[in-house]
Design brief:
The complex is a heterotetramer of chains A (481), B (657), C (306) and D (212). Chain B has 657 residues and is mainly alpha-helical. Chain B contains 24 helices and 5 strands. Among the domains of chain B are: 234 residues, no CATH class; 47 residues, no CATH class. In chain B, 72% of the residues lie in helices and 3% in strands. Chain D has one domain. Chain D is globular. Classes of the chains: A mainly alpha (481), B mainly alpha (657), C mainly alpha (306), D mainly alpha (212).
């Protein structure tokens, strides 16, 4: 039963990808996306209900963290898949065989990564996300998207290769510590206490840099603005919400290993430093950002920093970070999808060319504005609660300087993003009209609207089952003295 | 409490239903406006109960958010702030049914109702997270109201300045609540009494956080920069709410939080007094220079907040020095002035809105002669002008009377520096009082009196009954406050005894009772009536002829020759103001004996905003951009180098561990 | 906090009866200096009587505010007079903090006079209104500082007590301060009543006037009320100066009354002398003089605080 | 056995230097192919014959020695370029840096405790040195194709290191790793083709319009 369930949730997107590649019709193919997306969501709910699962000799399994990540991926993908219907209908002439196939492969890779209980599998899955998302970034097939793809591919591959090295180091740490070598996650956790410190520490550094590149910690984030900026909004949403969550999961796994090896203090210091540097970089870059999709990329860097800080501080902040993981993913989804609509309508993403979006695209522009307010931590949206919880953890842990810096960066980023967002949303539309045939459809506005509603509800009322998902995930990251 | 919930329910329902896509434009007005009116009435009952009951009512529900609980507390202080909130909310709602344009109205109702709910929640919240939640909701909803005219660039710019200021301020509040929560172990206000054990330096740091955080919302002097832009951009009843009520919620926060902190060192009060008097002088001077009527009123809010803060500072200082009578007077003055300011400032903003509605311009120089075209509005504005100038028989005098009495008490009984500061402040406050009269006679004289200064003003139309009735209620309340000052003291006393328990008997006793003021107001009305009847009697007896205004020999006086808004303050400007306040004028020079037609641009921007904050922000932004260009140059080699060096650095770091 | 019917009656009688006389005395003094015969002592009484009997001419631009100016201008000094002692005759109305009400009463008069002037829509009257509100605004701190000094000396916050029986004793203990504020109050009386050196009521150029230019358009009974009100205002403010100058009491009410009346006449003569010997200041110098007066009164306060 | 392996590893380092110093693309690709071929001998040499090692050796040889060089050769034949343009840092400084990095790797690996049976082998320093060489290539070379080569060398370094842990790595994971490498290079080759089509050059200096 367990095997079947996990196999099913993996095979669904993989089979969907194969089917998409085989289907000849550009019109029919996109329907595979919502189909797979919704089934995946249903299966995810079943998996979440089912409790801890394990399959394939313990190589795959579901623990509270995977449950959370799986939920995030599935929700986001489901929303994006409905959006994709509208988007691909609009761009029917562009062809979508590779696009749909890669989207489903991407989902497959993310699901695999979420369920991996073996570091090798985890690595392969994360690398697969890179490879399968590269063609998605290249979807627009122009000079800029080539450049973005190339940078993404190279930086991503180098990063992930470093992570491989880190995995090998950790494995060797076991060998050098006199134990049995295994890359099974549970074995590692079990034996970590005896691991050889130099190997383990070096391995941690490689893993941090490697997965940190995928997560997009500054200064390893350099591919992010290019990739997010040039990819279609839909892909941006999946990258910023899904891929980063998966990569962050890989970092959390690393953290678990370090916790088990009683090296928690060092690991958390590194996370804290990375988090603060990321927030600082994002704050500097987001100011007067002339391109609103790149701005969202920097915001993603910021939120990865927030997550890292939340996890590093511990206590209630870990809960906040877990909550924030979901909030960040969904809010980024809203923002990228809405930004994609605006981009299509104006055929530009430069702030100077895009003005008065609320007049031409009332729904998308409102979603963009509300999404901006949500992501910068304004109530009644859920990121307010999660960021506040992280801050509570920071302050009650006595890290007043960190807390002060955190608040300062948040404020600066709010200013930076706000001036860009407001000039995009309000004002009078420019003379150059863009694509006048572009219309908002139910698919392209409904999906982000649903996501926004979810974070709105979660910002006011956190139901107990949902709360338990976060709390269980956070409990895994608690340092046990 | 139940009525408060009922009010929230009604307001919330109205907010949610008003902006649905209804066919008819009347339905949103009925749903939104009706719910706002009913909600405010229900809220008024709650506030009244809170004031009469005199003892705190609490309510608590668990909230699933970490650190949060849905705890509310309605005590005298909260009720004291709820009362004006719902009064102005009610008047604003009635006013808006006529004032708002049809297409903007539905969404406006949503934000308006939510603004009322969030403000009421701010003053009743008894949990830090809930307070911040409501606080931020209040900022956001008011931001959306400010940008109601979102197609105008200046409205959006004003809204943005506002949002920026309030958000930066909120960051300080976050820091305060989080630190306070860390010290007291919980974010519930019921545990905040533990803050009373803090050492003075820590408490002072917290106090400064509060001052900046709440100051940026309240418009305390260096943080007022958003206010003069935001108020003119918002619809007038929203300006009334923002200026009359929202700004005061910040003062509520300051008072409430300070009541948790240990008894203050003297310098806290001194700092507040200094900021207060600077703000008052600055605000009123800037108000005298504005040609935009609502901008002028906005600066007048800066001035009045300055006065309130001054009085509060004096209260803190005298309490710290053990002067209970003076402290009670100052506190009563601050609270009563706060209440009064709510009433007359919202009256004036509503009146200004009516003028704009009627004449189509916010520029004083384009109005003129509206007294004839809009008699009721004009009468009400004159009442408001008298109230804000603290002239009898209106309520403005009552608050100022207490503040003056406190300062006089300090100046005439204390010796040394203790007497010097109140005396000096008294003189400066008197100067402010004189300048308020300049500002108000300017608005009345230029906008209402004389002959029309533009074709639109000549065609101005009087507002309809919803707008007029809203204003009339406010004006009557202003008059009632002036005639029955004891009532004002009773209401303020409910809040006062909570803030300063030592002076509870003073609030109830005769020492600071202002009933003579009411008596004098009645006598003034009597003597005015007598003089008026005499005048009528003589007029009946004699003949009445109509003629042109005496032009001192000039036969054809025109409205363009009359004193303009700028010339009205020229004398004060050249005689009294320091050079940094002087407005900028461009292209005014005439050349030659027969000069061509010249255009003349005259602006009075906020000097602090234009000469300090804006350059600072722009420089920082430019610097950041330059950094960005260097760091993210588009070169893949450098990016790879970042990865490489990050690895090496972290390896070194790990090695050191 | 007391009302005495006798004092009320006396106050009103003195105020209504005696106030126009001051103007006559000033006129005669000035005429004496100029070597003219001058108008009769009771000229202002004749003027007011005559004006009350005349018809009204109203500008077509004006509204009720224009008519309210004279009404307020007449009612305010009457009420204000009830708050202060005339000589050693105590004030009929007095309460703690009445000095604030007293000052703001004159603010009310100023408010309406200025509004009434602006209501005509004439550039000249606007000019007068501006000057009136601006200069009075600068005079207000002076009054407050002077009152604090008196409050400090008397230990009370009501005008009746501040200008009451303790004043004579205060002259012994704090003569320099009292002298300074006497000068300041005299200056305030001059500026509030638009006398030389601040304003020249008899000039013929509207451009240079303050008070007179504001009432250009008033006529008939309205103008009469304005003249009467102005005379009373001079009387009320003058009464403060005189009381400060002649603080004691003789013990007999009749003598006190005579002393007060004599003091008022003396004040009128002094004003006449000042007007005859000084020229009107340039407009831009007036704020400086007023700020100087404020500083002077503040200095007198510092003398006490030391 | 150790000596043979160590000799092979030293050859790998030699090839690293050769690549760093060479400007002809064809010889670079050929060298990488040779390096890959040599590395594919390592599993067998280091761990003896077994199904696992044979499969690994065969897979590595097919991929690193044949398939990927073939892909790259095809790519440069299409774009008709022969030489690397002048790198960001000249050849001699690159060689010096390469030497320094190699020395650094040896020093660094001295600090890492090895288990007894590996104490004589050079897997760790050579792996790290190869890694560093790959990084150097990535950072200093201007052509897309040389960057891809740098990535391959980088991967080779990891492969060398992985030899220490062959028994820990399940076959399926190894397969996945190799396949991912192939796909990554395949995608890179496609993108290179597109770069050449759009920009008419393989010089990635042209790819710097996405910046702040």
């Amino acid at each position: 039963m367990e095997n079947n369930l996990l196999a099913l949730i993996l095979l669904l997107p993989f089979g969907g990808a194969c089917l998409a590649f085989a289907l000849p019709s550009d019109r029919l193919r996109p329907w595979l996306l919502p189909l797979c997306g919704s089934l995946h969501l249903v299966l995810t709910f079943v998996v979440i209900q089912a409790g801890p699962l394990s399959a394939a000799n313990g190589w795959l399994g579901i623990d509270p963290l995977s449950r959370l990540i799986l939920l995030i991926i599935s929700l986001l993908f489901c929303g994006c898949s409905f959006y994709a219907l509208g988007y691909l209908r609009y761009r029917i002439s562009w062809g979508n065989r590779i696009f749909v196939t890669c989207l489903l492969l991407f989902l497959f890779a993310m699901t695999l990564a979420a369920m991996a209980r073996h570091l090798g599998i985890l690595w392969v899955a994360v690398e697969t996300t890179t490879v399968s998302s590269a063609p998605l970034i290249y979807y627009n097939r122009n000079r800029l998207s080539i450049e973005a793809t190339w940078k993404y591919l190279l930086l991503g591959s180098v990063g992930i290769a470093l992570a491989m090295l880190g995995i090998l180091f950790v494995a060797y740490a076991g060998l050098a510590g006199g134990g049995h070598v295994s890359l099974q996650f549970d074995d590692i956790l079990h034996g970590a206490a005896t691991y050889s410190r130099p190997w383990l520490k070096a391995g941690f550094v490689f893993l941090l840099v490697g997965f940190g590149t995928k997560v997009g910690f500054a200064p390893l984030h350099t591919w992010k603005p290019d990739a997010y900026g040039e990819a279609p909004g839909l892909v941006g949403a999946l990258l910023a919400g899904g891929l980063t969550s998966v990569a962050f999961l890989a970092l959390l796994r690393t953290l678990q290993i370090m916790d088990a090896a009683s090296e928690a203090v060092m690991a958390r210091e590194a996370f804290l430093a990375m988090g603060l540097i990321s927030m600082a970089f994002a704050a500097v870059f987001v100011i007067r950002q002339p391109d609103f999709k790149r701005m969202l990329a920097y915001s993603s860097v910021e939120h990865m920093g927030i997550l890292a800080i939340g996890v590093s501080v511990g206590g209630i902040a870990t809960f906040g970070a877990m909550f924030h993981l979901l909030n960040n993913a969904l809010t980024k989804g809203v923002l990228f999808l809405a930004a994609g609509n605006i981009h299509r309508r104006f055929e530009s993403k430069r702030v100077g060319d895009v003005r008065g979006a609320i007049i031409l695209l009332p729904f998308s522009a409102s979603l963009f504005l509300l999404g901006f307010l949500a992501i910068t931590g304004s109530p009644p949206f859920a990121p307010f609660i999660s960021e506040f919880t992280i801050l509570q953890g920071i302050f009650s842990g006595g890290h007043y300087v960190t807390g002060g810096l955190f608040l300062f960066f948040l404020a600066v980023i709010f200013i930076g993003m706000g001036s860009t967002v407001l000039s995009v949303v309000f004002g009078n539309p420019p003379e150059k009209k863009g694509d006048e045939n572009y219309r908002e459809t139910l698919a392209t506005t409904g999906a982000p609207l649903i996501m926004l509603l979810i974070i709105l509800v979660l910002g006011v009322y956190l139901p107990d089952p949902v709360r338990r998902i976060f709390a269980d995930a956070a409990a895994l990251l608690e340092v046990r003295p | 409490m139940n009525f408060l919930f009922l009010s929230w329910l009604l307001l919330g329902l109205g907010a949610c239903t008003a902006s649905l896509p209804w066919r008819s434009s009347k339905i949103p007005a009925i749903l939104g406006g009706g719910s706002a009116v009913l909600g405010c009435l229900s809220g008024l009952i709650a506030a009244g109960q809170g004031l009469i009951a005199g003892k705190a009512e609490t309510f608590s529900l668990p909230w699933s958010m970490p650190g949060g609980s849905f705890s509310l507390r309605l005590d005298g202080l909260s009720a004291f702030f709820l009362l004006p909130l719902f009064i102005v909310g009610l008047a604003g709602a009635v006013y808006a049914t006529e004032y708002m344009q049809k297409e903007k109205a539905p969404l406006h109702w949503t934000w308006y109702n939510f603004l009322l709910v969030s403000m009421a929640m701010v003053v009743t919240a008894a949990n830090g997270l809930l307070f911040l939640f409501a606080w931020e909701c209040m900022s956001l909803t008011s931001f959306f109201l400010v940008i109601t005219e979102f197609n105008l660039a200046e409205a959006v710019a004003a809204g943005w300045t506002y949002l920026l200021a309030t958000h930066l301020g909120a960051a300080f509040l976050f820091a305060f609540f989080l630190t306070a929560g860390a010290f007291s172990g919980s974010l519930d206000f019921s545990s905040f009494h533990l803050l009373g054990k803090l050492s003075v330096p820590v408490a002072s740091a917290l106090f400064l956080l509060l001052l900046v955080g709440f100051g940026s919302k309240a418009g305390i002097f260096p943080f007022h920069v958003w206010l003069p832009d935001a108020h003119p951009a918002a619809p007038s009843h929203v300006s009334a709410i923002m200026s009359g009520v929202m700004v005061k919620t910040a003062i509520y926060g300051l008072l409430r939080m300070c009541s948790f902190l240990p008894v203050s060192p003297v310098w806290w009060g001194g700092l507040l007094m200094a900021l207060g008097i600077i703000g008052a002088l600055f605000g009123i001077a800037m108000a005298a220079l504005q040609r935009d009527v609502k901008r002028g009123l906005a600066y007048s809010t800066v001035e009045n907040v300055g006065i309130i803060i001054l009085a509060l500072g004096f209260w803190m200082q005298s309490r710290a020095a053990g002067q209970h009578l003076i402290a009670a007077l100052a506190l009563a003055g601050a609270l009563i002035h706060l209440l009064n300011h709510t009433l007359f400032k919202s009256l004036l903003f509503l009146g200004a809105g009516s003028l704009i509605h009627g004449s189509g311009s916010r520029n004083l120089n384009h109005m003129g002669g509206l007294m004839r075209r809009m008699p009721v509005t004009s009468l009400l504005i004159v009442c408001g002008g008298m109230a804000i100038s603290a002239l009898p028989p209106f309520n403005g005098l009552v608050g100022e009377w207490f503040i003056y009495r406190a300062l006089l008490g300090g100046g005439s009984t204390l010796s040394g520096l203790g007497g010097f500061f109140p005396a000096a402040l008294l003189g400066l406050l008197a100067l402010v009082g004189g300048m308020v009269i300049i500002v108000m006679t300017r608005i009345i004289g230029i906008a209402l009196a004389g002959s029309p200064r533009s074709p639109e003003a000549a065609q101005a139309h009087e507002a309809g009954w919803p707008m007029l009735s809203a204003m009339t209620v406010m004006a009557l309340l202003c008059l009632a406050g002036g005639l029955a000052p004891v009532l004002l003291l009773r209401v303020a006393g409910q809040a006062g005894v909570l803030l300063d328990p030592d002076s509870a008997n003073l609030f109830a006793g005769q020492d600071i009772n202002p009933w003579w003021l009411g008596m004098m107001a009645f006598m003034l009305l009597g003597s005015l009536l007598a003089a008026f009847s005499f005048s009528r009697w003589r007029q009946r007896r004699g003949t009445v002829a109509a003629a042109n205004t005496w032009g001192c020999g000039f036969a054809f006086p025109a409205s363009r020759m009359a004193y303009s808004a700028e010339s009205y303050t020229e004398l004060a400007q050249s005689g009294m103001f320091c050079s940094c306040l002087i407005p900028e004028s461009k292209d005014g020079q005439t050349v030659g004996y027969f000069p061509l037609i010249r255009s003349f641009v005259f602006t009075a921007p906020d000097p602090l905003l234009e000469k300090f904050f804006r350059p600072l922000f722009q420089w920082t932004a430019g610097y950041c951009r330059r950094c960005c260009c260097r760091l993210q140059s588009g070169n893949l080699h450098i990016y790879l180098f970042y990865v490489f060096s990050a690895t090496i650095l972290l390896l070194f770091w790990a090695w050191q561990r | 906090m007391k009302i005495t019917i006798l004092q009320l009656f006396l106050h009103l009688l003195l105020l209504f009866g005696l106030s126009p006389l001051l103007s006559g005395v000033i006129g005669k003094t000035k005429a004496l200096f100029a070597g003219r015969t001058g108008p009769p002592w009771l000229q202002l009484y004749y003027d007011i009587w005559k004006l009350f009997g005349k018809g009204l001419v109203l500008s077509r631009v004006t509204t009720w505010v224009f008519r309210a100016g004279p009404v307020v201008g007449l009612a305010v000094p009457v009420l204000a007079a009830l708050l202060i002692p005339f000589g050693s005759i105590g004030a009929p109305l007095s309460f703690t903090g009445d000095l604030i009400f007293f000052i703001y009463l004159f603010g009310l008069a100023r408010f309406f006079t200025a509004c009434a002037a602006l209501d005509t829509g004439s550039a000249f009257e606007g000019m007068g209104a501006v000057r009136e509100v601006t200069f009075s605004c600068l005079a207000e701190p002076t009054v407050f500082f002077a009152f604090i000094v008196l409050a400090r000396l008397s230990g009370s916050l009501s005008l009746d007590a501040m200008f009451g029986q303790t004043l004579a004793a205060s002259w012994h203990s704090a003569a320099p301060s009292l002298l300074l504020i006497l000068v300041c109050l005299f200056l305030v009386t001059l500026v509030e009543n638009c006398r030389i050196p601040f304003d020249d009521p008899n000039t013929h150029l509207e451009l240079t006037m303050i008070h007179e230019v504001m009432v250009l358009d008033h006529s008939g009974p309205d103008l009469g009320m304005i003249l009467y009100g102005a005379a009373m205002k001079l009387f009320v403010l003058g009464a403060l100066v005189v009381r400060l100058f002649l603080p004691g009491t003789t013990g007999s009410m009749i003598l006190d009354l005579l002393l007060f009346a004599g003091g008022m006449l003396l004040l009128a003569v002094i004003i006449g002398v000042v007007e005859s010997t000084m020229a009107r200041l340039r407009l831009l110098r007036i704020p400086q003089l007023l700020v100087g007066a404020s500083l002077l009164s503040f200095f007198s306060l510092i003398l006490l605080l030391r | 056995m150790d000596n043979t392996v160590n000799f092979l590893l030293l050859l790998v380092i030699l090839l690293n230097f050769f690549i760093l110093g060479s400007s002809r693309l064809v010889s670079c690709i050929r060298t990488v192919a040779i390096q890959g071929g040599m590395l594919s001998l390592l599993p067998v040499l280091a761990h003896g014959f077994s199904g696992h090692t044979l499969f690994l050796a065969a897979g590595a040889f097919l991929l690193k020695g044949i398939a990927i060089p073939f892909l790259l050769f095809k790519a440069i034949r299409q774009v008709r370029i022969r030489r690397e343009v002048e790198p960001l840092i000249g050849y001699v400084p690159t060689l010096i840096l390469g030497t320094l990095a190699t020395a650094g790797s040896f020093i660094f690996s001295d600090r890492l405790p090895l288990i007894a049976e590996h104490s004589q082998s050079l897997f760790v320093p050579v792996g790290l040195a190869t890694l560093a060489t790959g990084f150097l290539m990535l950072i200093t070379r201007r052509k897309a194709i040389t960057q891809a080569l740098g990535y391959l060398i980088f991967e080779n370094g990891i492969f060398v290191f992985g030899m220490l842990l062959t028994e820990a790595m399940p076959l399926m994971v190894e397969t996945g790793v190799l396949l991912d490498l192939l796909v990554a290079v395949f995608v890179m080759a496609i993108v290179m083709h597109q770069i050449n089509r759009e920009f008419s050059t393989m010089n990635i200096d042209k790819l710097s319009s996405l910046k702040e």
